[in-house]
Each structure stands twice: as structure tokens, then as C-alpha cells.
């Protein structure tokens, strides 16, 4: 992970592309899961909980920034923990859960767009993404930034053409309120903090990076809220598919929504895969090829378990692995911050409070 964060960046990259990099790390599976959760929980309580999660993660951003230095992001966190293995374990949970969910959901998007069998669609997505990781060892930073900007444009177009369609009134009030699942999925959807060290190196200083990161964070939150609200109020959607939208939307709009989701999945899959490879290499001292094979093998096996043996639903997979892992990692960071004696922008009492909140939410996500 430290090696990944030490790669060089161009000094002349614009602020807009830096924001695009943050958005590309943030926007992913939430495009499919949040509209479904909005419908299940009702718009008002869903937006209230998601806003609360966004505020807590916004404060957490300052906590994390206090711990980032020239050694990278993990060194200062692990130095304050007795059980250092919890840090890479939490990140591995996030990575494996996210990558498996992208494999699963991509098959549904290809089915909605091209009527390809979801099994074959998922296999095609996995092969194309795996080849890029094996061949080029991940997307370049420049490509990630450009894809982030393209993703923002696609979201704006999707939301624009969705506006004015007939509203599904029964979708606004909700049928089943699940706050724990909503918290964990929202935390996973809004967690783009792994991009922080990249943005700092790109901007040249923490102060300049803060503006880019928080701009990207705010944009991603607004995109999620508007997109989730629009999609959830024009049709009854399924947890992982836009296939049902083809029955409501014009074919071109259904295809655009699926393509937007696929772009988000592909960008996030590659970025998370490369980050996890470096994490395993640094923490487990594994060779590069073995690390890549392990990173691709674990989500593939988890996908097969979810798809073929129905051990977990896709939304439970994201909630327990992705969201639970994010909340556990956030709790570990806040604990390390509270024990740190370096200069802080956030008081220790705040990080201690966040530690208990994140740890409680993580335990609930894993148990329930």
C-alpha cells in the first residue's frame, strides 16, 4: 500500500481532474443499491441516515489526514494498535466484498443492456478487469481521473433525462426500514478515503488536497442523493439490477443507466484491486504474482459462493464485507488518532467518540 501511494503524479494536472479522481474512487455499487434501499426504507429516513453517515465520514476525513505523512497511511495507524493485523484484515474485507459485488452486479447490467446471460456477463467483466490488472497492473492515475470525469458526465445526463418521468408514489414511503443495512451500505458507498494520499501527492500539500477531496466527496454525495432519489421514484427497482428499469424507461435511457453503472464498477474494481495487491505485498510479504492471483481469486470464490450457493444476498455481501470493513477500519483509525501525540486538527475526544460509533456500527453490520 505504501508503495502504491509513493508513485509519481504530474504537477500540471488540473483541480477538476483531481476531483474526478476522488469521484472515481467514491462512486460504485451505491448506484445500484442505494435506490433500492431508498425504496425499502422510504426517502426521508433513508436520506436522513445517509446524510448523518456523510457528516461523520466528513469529520473522519480530518482524523485520517492527521495520520497521513511521508510514511503513508497505514504506518501511523498500526503503530498505535496492539493487534496490527486488524488493519489489513479490515481493508481486505472491504476489497474482497467490493470486488465480488462488482462481478455480480456487472452481469445484471449487461443483461439489462444487451440481454446477455448474467453468468456470462459477470465472467466477461471479471476477465476484462483481471487482464488489465495482470497486464498493466491497474489503471494509471491519469486514466482514473478521466474516467471519473466521464462518470460524472454520464450521471448528469442520466439524471437529466430521468427528470420529469412519471413518479412511482408508492416508492416514496418505504416498506421495510433497515437502518443497520442502510448505514453500512452508505458508509461503503461514501468511502473514497483511500484516494487521500494520491490527492495529497497530486496537489503537493495537505491544504490543497483538502479542497479537492472534499469537493469530490460533496459531489459524490450529491450525485448519490439525486440519482438515488430520481431512480427510486420512477420505478420499482431490484437490489442489484437495472433490468427492471427497461420496462419503465425508454431503451436508450435504460442502456445509459446500465453503462454508467458498468463504468463505475470497472473503475472501482481496478483501483481497489491494485490497492489490495500492494497491501498484501507490504503486509504479508508475498511476491507480486502471488499477490495478484490471491486478490483476483478471493473475490471470484466469494462471488461463486454468493451466486451459486446463496450464502449471502448481494446486498448482505456489500453490507457485511464492504460496509462492515469500512466501519471497522474507520474505528481503528479513530482509535489510533486518539492515542497519537502528534499535532491534531481534531481533538482526541472527537476521535474517541467516532471510535465508539464506528465500532458499534461495524459490530451491528457483521452480526445482523
CATH class: Mainly Alpha
Number of spatially distinct domains = 1
Question: What is the helix/strand order?
Answer: HHHHHHHHHHHHHHH
- Sum up the overall morphology in one term: globular
What is the helix tally?
15
Q: How big is the Rg?
A: 19 Å
The helical percent reads: over 70%
Mean model confidence by pLDDT: 79
Number of strands: 0
Question: Considering the protein shown, what is the CATH homologous superfamily?
Answer: Amino acid/polyamine transporter I
What is the CATH architecture assignment? Up-down Bundle
Distance between the termini: 31 Å
Taking the sheet with the most strands, its summary is:
none
| Class by SSE composition | mainly alpha
How big a fraction of the residues is strand? Answer: under 5%
User: Uncertain segments of ≥5 residues (pLDDT<50)?
Assistant: 1-12
Description:
By secondary structure, the protein is mostly helical. The chain has a single domain (2-367), classed as Amino acid/polyamine transporter I (Up-down Bundle). Helices cover 76% and strands 0% of the residues. The protein is built from 15 helices and no strands. Helix 10 packs across helix 11 (206-234). The protein is globular, with a radius of gyration of 19 Å. Mean pLDDT is 79; it is low at 1-12.
Amino acid at each position: 500500500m505504501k508503495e502504491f501511494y509513493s508513485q509519481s503524479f504530474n504537477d500540471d494536472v488540473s483541480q477538476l481532474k483531481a476531483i474526478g479522481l476522488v469521484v472515481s474512487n467514491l462512486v460504485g455499487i451505491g448506484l445500484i443499491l442505494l435506490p433500492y434501499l431508498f425504496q425499502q426504507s422510504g426517502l426521508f429516513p433513508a436520506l436522513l441516515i445517509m446524510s448523518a453517515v456523510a457528516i461523520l465520514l466528513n469529520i473522519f476525513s480530518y482524523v485520517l489526514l492527521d495520520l497521513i505523512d511521508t510514511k503513508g497511511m497505514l504506518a501511523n495507524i498500526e503503530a498505535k494498535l496492539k493487534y496490527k493485523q486488524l488493519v489489513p484484515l479490515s481493508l481486505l474485507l472491504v476489497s474482497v466484498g467490493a470486488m465480488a459485488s462488482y462481478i455480480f452486479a456487472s452481469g445484471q447490467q449487461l443483461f439489462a443492456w444487451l440481454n446477455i446471460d448474467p453468468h456470462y456477463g459477470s465472467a466477461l467483466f471479471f476477465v476484462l478487469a483481471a487482464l488489465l490488472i495482470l497486464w498493466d497492473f491497474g489503471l494509471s492515475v491519469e486514466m482514473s481521473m478521466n474516467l471519473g470525469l466521464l462518470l460524472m458526465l454520464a450521471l448528469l445526463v442520466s439524471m437529466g433525462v430521468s427528470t420529469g418521468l412519471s413518479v412511482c408514489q408508492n416508492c416514496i414511503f418505504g416498506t421495510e426500514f433497515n437502518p443497520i443495512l442502510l448505514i453500512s451500505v452508505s458508509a461503503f458507498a461514501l468511502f473514497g478515503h483511500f484516494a487521500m494520499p494520491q490527492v495529497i501527492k497530486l496537489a503537493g500539500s495537505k491544504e490543497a488536497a483538502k479542497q479537492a477531496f472534499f469537493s469530490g466527496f460533496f459531489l459524490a454525495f450529491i450525485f448519490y442523493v439525486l440519482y438515488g432519489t430520481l431512480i427510486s421514484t420512477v420505478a420499482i427497482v431490484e437490489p442489484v439490477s437495472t433490468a427492471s428499469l427497461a420496462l419503465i424507461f425508454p431503451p436508450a435511457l435504460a442502456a445509459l443507466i446500465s453503462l454508467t453503472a458498468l463504468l463505475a464498477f470497472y473503475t472501482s474494481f481496478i483501483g481497489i484491486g491494485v490497492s489490495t495487491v500492494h497491501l498484501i505485498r507490504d503486509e504479508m510479504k508475498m511476491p507480486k504474482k502471488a499477490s495478484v492471483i490471491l486478490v483476483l481469486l478471493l473475490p471470484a470464490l466469494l462471488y461463486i459462493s454468493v451466486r451459486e450457493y446463496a450464502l449471502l444476498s448481494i446486498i448482505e455481501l456489500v453490507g457485511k464485507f464492504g460496509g462492515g470493513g469500512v466501519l471497522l477500519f474507520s474505528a481503528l483509525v479513530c482509535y489510533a488518532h486518539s492515542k497519537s501525540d502528534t499535532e491534531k486538527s481534531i481533538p482526541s475526544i472527537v476521535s474517541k467518540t467516532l471510535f465508539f460509533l464506528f465500532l458499534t456500527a461495524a459490530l451491528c453490520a457483521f452480526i445482523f
